[in-house]
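Minutes, project check-in

Agenda point 3 was the complex the collaborators sent over. CS summarized: two entities, 487 residues total, and the question is how they sit relative to each other. Sequences were read into the notes so everyone works from the same version.
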Amino acid sequence: MARILMLTLRAPAVGASDFSANLDADTQVVHRAVAVAPDTTVSAHDWALADLAVLAAGQGAESEGYDAVCVAETGDYGLGALRSVLSIPVIGAGRSAMLHALTLGNRFSILVPNSRYYRIKKLVGDYGLDRQCASVCAIGAETSDSDETTFPQILAQAQACLDEDGSDVLCLDTHSPALASRLADKLGTPVIEPISLSLKLAESFLGLHLSHSRGAYPAPQVRKQPLITAIAETR
Amino acid sequence: MSRVLVIVPFPMDASNLELRKAQLRSVKLGDGIDFEYRPVRIAPANYVSQQDSVLADIGILEAGIQAESEGFDAVCIDTVSDSGMAALRSVLNIPVIGAGRHAMLAALMLGEKFSILAMWDRWRHLYTKTLAELGLAHKCASLRSAGLQPNNQSLLSGKEDEFFPHLHAAAIRCIEEDGADVIILGSTTMHEAHSYLAERLPVPVINPGPLTYRLADAAIKLRLRHSRIAYPSPHAPAAERLRTMGQAAGAI
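CS then shared the predicted structure for the full assembly.
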C-alpha cells in the first residue's frame, strides 16, 4: 500500500475525475487543499504566499504516514521547501511535466491560463529549460474538460504551438484528462496532463525506492513547523 | 495484461539472459504488466566506438521493428546508450523507452546536477551524445569511471568484492569534487552494484534499467508515446531487409 498526499491551492471542482485512475490498485491518493491560498497567482507576492501555504499543508506528511507528496500545481509552489523538510519523494507537477515532455520529444509548449503565465515562464528559466521550451502559450481564462465554447480556441492555439513555435510535445496546466486526450487525438501529438503524470511518477519513484536528493535540497538546521502552521492559517 | 518487449543489446545464452532479467527484482512493478526479454541478433562486441554505435542501432531496430504487430504495448531498450531508440520511435506507435535519456531526465526530477558513473572511460561517447541531443550538458556535473573492464555477458558476477569499492570511490568523487546530487549508473549492466551503492551514498542512485520498467508502465497507463513531429516516420520501413540482415548476422 502506497499513500500519496496530493496538495492543491484550491479544493477540486465537484465531479473532478478520479485521481487514482491510472495508478496501481494498492496506491491511495488523499487530496488536501491548503488552508489559506492567495486569491490569485499572478505575481511574486502571490507565489510567496502560495509557497508558504503548500509548505504548511505538506510539512507533516511523513509523520502522518504518507509515502509521497504531490504538489499538484504546475506552479510547483512550495516544492523546494517541502523537499528540504521531507525525506519521502515530493513531486512537483510543473517540473515533472516539463522534464517528462523531453522523454517524448525535443521541445515542448505549455498551455496555461493567463493568470499563471508569468509563473510558468519563470519556472522554465529556473529549471534551465529555456532552450527546450518552444513557448508558454496563454489561453485566456481557466478552462475545464467540458468547456465546449473554449475548445476550438484552445485547439487552434495548440496547433499554432506546433506549427509556428516549433514544439513537438504539449503540456497542459491543469487536471483535465479529457481535454488532454481530446487535444492529442485532434493534433496527433502527445499532450501531457500534469496532475495525472505527477501522481504516476510519485508511484514510480516509490516503486524504485527513489527520492529527491538531499544534496540539492539540504535540510534546515532548525525546523519551524509550529511557526509555519500558525502563520499559514492566518486570514 | 500489458506486454513490454525488453531488447537486450547483445546476443546471449539463457543463463546470461537471466542476469539481465534479475533487474526486474529491484523494482515494484506496476499492476498488470509483463516483460519479455529478447537479445538482438546483430551487435558489436561492445560499445566503444562509432562503428559499434551503427551496429547497435541496426541490431536494436531489427529486434524491435515488429514489436507493435507482435502485440507488445511498449518497448524498453536495455542499454544506457539509447542505441536504436530514435530509429524504433520513428517506426513504432507504442512507447519506446531508452534507459539513458529517461535516466537523465528522471535525475533532474530529483536533483539539480547529476553525474554518470561508468565502468570505464570508453563509454564516455555514449553519454555525451545523449547530453548533446537533450541540450542538457550544463546539468551534468561529471562523467566519471572506475577504470574497470566491463563484461556485457557475465556482468559483475564474481567480481563484487573487487569492483564495488572502486565504483563507490568514483561515485564519492562525483559528489564531493564535481557537485553531483544524483548519480546515474552508466550502464544497465551495472545493476548488480545498485543496492550496494544506494545504501552507501548520500544521494539518489538511478538504476536505469528498472527505471524504464516503471516508465513503460506510466507511458502505457497514461497513453503517452513519443511525438511523431520529433520522430517522423520513414516512407517505407525496411522490415524484410532487416530480418534478412538478422539472419545473415546469425550465420557469422
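Noted in discussion: The CA atoms of residues 145 and 188 of chain A lie 18 Å apart.
Follow-up: revisit at the next meeting once the mutant set is ready.
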